[in-house]
């Protein structure tokens, strides 16, 4: 069924879009969340139009008053979104037109193409700030667990085989580093978003005497010195979706990090590891097996990280075949970006909540880290200190490990003559290599897990996250 010619571009049409086309074409169901940014953009644009004399100050004020009223209605949940008006931009413009005659001048020297690019850049700046704050919250929750368990040692793993002892805090500080890099990526994305598209028009700017720098300044698209940042090529501006891809990549990378942390916690909560207990509030039970307590929050983070990667892939594929400049395909850029934001935000909150309620089972950790074999490398270092070349020392320790296995005893239970039969450099103090406290204190360099280094890192993170 054809509708009345469309109000926004109806001049050259004799029929409006079919009902099916309206449903197919609408984006307001998901881009309505751009409303605050769309309204900020329209207020800045109309302020600029008044500044250069394209509209009067009275018209500007009327437009601003109408937009403020619309935003208040939207925030109160009273605004009626209409899918037949397609997107957030036309919904707001139409509502404004019904209230304020001057609204008919608002779209002067503007297209939805530079409008949506502006809305999204404003949105990206806000979204990056929000996610950075959530990252800091998650980091604080992790830091608190580290602070509560400063003396707990666990085996560190490579190949999921016990490797060397580390303080649990050292492992947790690795998470802080990963998340800090994620925050850094969001800061870069926010900086890349910080260029004002308005004035690019549909593709080739405008013949009207606008002031792009004025608009950019009004919207906060400025550099560190407060100088306006405006995009430098109108065609690139309306076609460019790099920031979308970069944002989704930052979310996907954060998702990979969160997923790896989640995987650690899933393992650590298993009976096999038993290092931690996750809070009931972030676990679920089984509908059949009464004894089960499952780490669903962490499994869902692991699962959602796949979705974040999918969103990135959607955006890359969406952009790759498009001729310059704007093509309607690009409307499909928003669902993956919004989903990446929403899911990343949720995952960060859930991670913070799970860590906040996590209990460390110190006795299980101590038992796991008590195997002297974890300090086999320290024994090789002992031989190195006796002047043995490392390759030879490695071999001499390997042979001792084998001997202990053959005798069915722990590594530190072998006698001095046992080890001296392998290499004469072993002295009576060889067995001191298995003193965990001394072994940890020796790992004294930057980035290593000695207690002294850990105190340094604590101080650093406490300052960073204060
Ligand atoms: N809703 C549209 C989008 O998100 C806005 C831009 C529409 N431009 C156009 N020429 N149809 O892409």
TrEMBL record:
It catalyses: 2-(N(omega)-L-arginino)succinate = fumarate + L-arginine. It is found in: Cytoplasm. Residues 13-310 form the Fumarate lyase N-terminal domain. Pfam families: ASL_C2, Lyase_1. Keywords: Amino-acid biosynthesis, Arginine biosynthesis, Cytoplasm, Lyase. Pathway: Amino-acid biosynthesis; L-arginine biosynthesis; L-arginine from L-ornithine and carbamoyl phosphate: step 3/3. CDD domains: Argininosuccinate_lyase. The keyword Metal-binding does not apply. The keyword Cytoplasm applies. It comes from the Bacteria. GO terms for cellular component: cytosol. GO terms for molecular function: argininosuccinate lyase activity. Residues 374-440 form the Argininosuccinate lyase C-terminal domain. GO terms for biological process: L-arginine biosynthetic process via ornithine. Its EC number is 4.3.2.1. Belongs to the lyase 1 family. Argininosuccinate lyase subfamily. HAMAP family: Arg_succ_lyase. PANTHER family: ARGININOSUCCINATE LYASE. This is Argininosuccinate lyase.
């Amino acid at each position: 069924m054809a509708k009345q010619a469309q109000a926004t571009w109806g001049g050259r049409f004799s029929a409006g879009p079919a009902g099916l086309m309206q449903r197919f074409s609408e984006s307001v169901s998901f881009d309505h969340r751009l409303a605050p940014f769309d309204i900020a953009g329209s207020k800045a644009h109309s302020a600029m139009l008044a500044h250069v004399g394209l509209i009067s100050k009275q018209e500007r004020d009327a437009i601003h008053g109408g937009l403020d009223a619309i935003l208040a209605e939207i925030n109160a949940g009273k605004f009626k979104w209409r899918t037949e008006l397609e997107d957030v931009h036309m919904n707001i413009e139409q509502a404004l037109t019904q209230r304020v005659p001057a609204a008919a001048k608002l779209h002067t020297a503007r297209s939805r193409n530079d409008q949506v690019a502006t809305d999204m850049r404003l949105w990206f700046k806000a979204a990056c700030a929000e996610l950075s704050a959530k990252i800091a919250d998650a980091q604080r929750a992790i830091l608190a667990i580290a602070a509560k368990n400063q003396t707990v040692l666990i085996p560190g793993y490579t190949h999921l085989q016990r490797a060397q002892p580390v303080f649990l805090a050292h492992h947790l500080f690795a998470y802080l580093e990963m998340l800090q890099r994620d925050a850094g990526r969001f800061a870069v994305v926010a900086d890349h978003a910080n260029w004002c598209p308005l004035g690019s028009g549909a593709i080739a700017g405008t013949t009207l005497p606008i002031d792009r720098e004025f608009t950019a300044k009004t919207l906060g698209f400025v550099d560190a010195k407060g100088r306006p940042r405006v995009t430098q090529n109108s065609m690139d501006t309306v076609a460019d979706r790099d920031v979308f891809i970069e944002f989704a990549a930052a979310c996907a990378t954060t998702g990979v990090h969160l997923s790896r942390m989640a995987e650690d916690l899933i393992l650590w909560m298993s009976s096999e590891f038993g290092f931690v207990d996750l809070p009931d509030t972030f676990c679920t039970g089984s509908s059949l097996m009464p004894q089960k307590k499952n780490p669903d929050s962490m499994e869902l983070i692991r699962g959602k990280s796949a979705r974040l990667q999918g969103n990135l892939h959607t955006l890359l594929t969406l952009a790759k075949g498009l001729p310059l400049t704007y093509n309607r395909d690009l409307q499909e850029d928003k669902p993956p970006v919004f989903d990446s934001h929403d899911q990343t935000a949720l995952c960060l909150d859930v991670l913070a909540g799970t860590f906040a309620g996590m209990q460390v089972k110190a006795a299980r950790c101590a038992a796991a880290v008590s195997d002297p074999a974890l300090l086999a490398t320290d024994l090789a270092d002992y031989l190195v200190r006796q002047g043995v070349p490392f390759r030879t020392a490695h071999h001499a320790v390997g042979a001792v490990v084998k001997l202990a296995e053959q005798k069915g005893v722990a590594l530190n239970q072998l006698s001095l003559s046992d080890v001296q039969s392998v290499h004469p450099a072993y002295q009576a103090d060889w067995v001191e290599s298995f003193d965990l406290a001394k072994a940890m204190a020796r790992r004294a360099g930057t980035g290593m897990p000695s207690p002294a280094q850990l105190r340094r890192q604590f101080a650093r993170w406490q300052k960073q996250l204060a």
